[in-house]
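Why predict the complex rather than its parts? Because the way molecules touch one another can change local conformation, and only a joint prediction can capture that. The input here totals 745 residues.
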Amino acid sequence: MRFGLSKKSLFLLLGVVSCVSEVELPYPVSPTEYVLNGILNPDSVISLTLHQTLPPLASDSVYPAVADARVRCYENGEVLGELTYRGQGRYELPATYPKPGGIYRVEAQVGALTLSAQDTVPPMVPFTLEITDRQPQNPNYNPNLLLTIPPDGGQERFVWISLSYIRYYSLVYGGPQLIQTSFESPLSASPYLDNFNAQQEFDRNLKNYRPLARLDPAFGGEKTIPFTFMVGITWLRQLGERLDLHVMQVSRSHDRYIKSVVVAFNNRLVDEDGGFHNPFGESTNTYSNVTNGLGFFGAMQSRKVVLQEGTE
Amino acid sequence: MARWNHVFGPRLFKNSTLSYTNYRFLIEARMRAANETYRFRTTSGITDLSYKSDFVYSLGRSELQFGTELTRHRFAPEISLVQGEWAEGELNRPEMSPPTFVLDSRLYADYLYRPRENLRLQGGLHYNLLRVAGRTYHGLQPRLSLNADLWPSVAGVRASYAQTMQFLHLLTNPSLGLPTDLWVPVTDQIPPQRAQQYSVGVYGTFRKTLQWSVDVYTKSMRHLLEYTEGGAFLTSPGQRWYDRVAVGDGASRGVELLLQKPGEKFSGLLSYTLSRTTRVFKELNNGQPFPYRYDRRHALNLSAEYHFTRRRSLQALFTASNGGFVTIATQRFAGAPLPLFFDRGSGWRGDWFTGKLDYFPQRNNLEMPFYHRLDLSYQASKQKRKGTRTWTLAVYNVYSQRNAFYLFVHDNRLKKFTLFPIIPSVSYAFRFE
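Output of the joint prediction:
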């Protein structure tokens, strides 16, 4: 049968068929927004930051600071004071610390626009911690940490736990020592932890809660949460090295914010270097309690427990 | 499939069918990003065992169709996304969603009445009963239609109304990333979709050869599904597809124009639809309406067929439409840091997670690039001793238009990924006679 198609044309066609292509498109333009951020903690003075947004593909890493805003803070409905600008978008109320149970509201006037947000400082959750002996089934034979939280007495309680460590390391054997600080993800099989950010650990009956674990508020009674971690506790022997546990109680809106940030971080399509991160990710906004702007203003209390401190 | 037809008399005819279908669909992808490897898997298994009986009773100027259908559906949809090179076993963990069984029974009766040659009235009532995981859903689905040739062979009007119930939902992801559509069934928590549609139109024939019609429709839908924000997130242990969805409503309105030229030598069809389809979900987009993923404002289809001889023909199809909608960030900002502590006296370092947060002001806020392509095919048949053989030469996307399969951001640039440029094909068919 004659097709009327030369061999040359056929090879050309086959070559074109095997192509896939990437074509650049213009990115849609939209106006900038104002961003108000601040975290209230009784161990720090009341402060917040004000910046503007950037286009998503901008190469800038520094967000434009808002230096000319008038910012006021209210405590339980009464004016507490006007915040002073400290540079780089930061506003502070000197020598004024938020109190547990206090309701704090901030209003930032930027031109004709007023951004506002409000939150309540929660009490600190009581807890006890027991460190067991080293366990052979744990990573690096690390001990188990048994965190016991008493019943909440019907009060809503949002508790998060995180770990951090400082460690020296050398790039080459015998080379100069460099210091590394990082967070450490809790590893646990406890049913009392929220699995929203859990990933099953390979070959272990443990889940990795990166970067921090959330206690499921549905369980109101007394609970003991066993967990461990990856970095070897016996590695941290030198003076200056340490491993810390942080237990935090946050407000309801702060809890919602943290959860939304973790979900958004894991769903981002692009990583910090502009490359592919999660090609199957979902578009996810982070929670905001700021009126007329973006960002988050929330409250928390925290307590640190030193798990290991180097002495050599 | 087994079929049994029976004629009871000059007016009553019955058709019974027993069928079994087994459908399996699997996509598994492995994507290596800069710092991580992702393994994605979506599966859809639908097994149906069905019996139905249809009766037709002729009454002169009218006809009554009635019957029943009973189907046992087995659904096993799942969508999983795991992180890490070693995560192969995670995709096949036995605690993924167990299959869903739906027992679907239906009774229906449709009555067609032609009081005059140029008037046709049709009314029907369908009743569905669904049973899934101890929960029962049921509903009546009335339908009415009217066709009237006001000016016989020249022009007429038509109108219709229908209520429908559907036990299959389509889940679509709104992000820029790879499309991961999934068909899922009703469950004891997720009810069937319900819709009401009204349409009215005019139609006619021009110069006895050109058929035309213009129809306007409006459709309202309830119990639609969409992923919750972050819903297609990395698979969490114990989380199943129905833990990640929200239920809401939708609406669609449009006008359809159709021009058709039948003929032995040359035939053609031109259709154009202008429509708008939206969704509104309490948990999504702050409860505000947003465009549906596949809302295609303009859709044009043009097809033509020319017969050189009785056995040789050329077909052409041109299709063009808006590309649909996806969600894209319009600004980025730094959020309040997470409570992650790096105790070097420097305070918090939780800003690593919040230094570049995307702001999506609205769901499905970006329209994909316009889609268009031309397909051509040439068919040649020849009578052989034992039957007819047919060669078909076809070219899909003749001018190799780079239509967007999906959008993505890379090297700080927005790009579209094209999957199917020009694709030629050859096929051979033989029909034994």
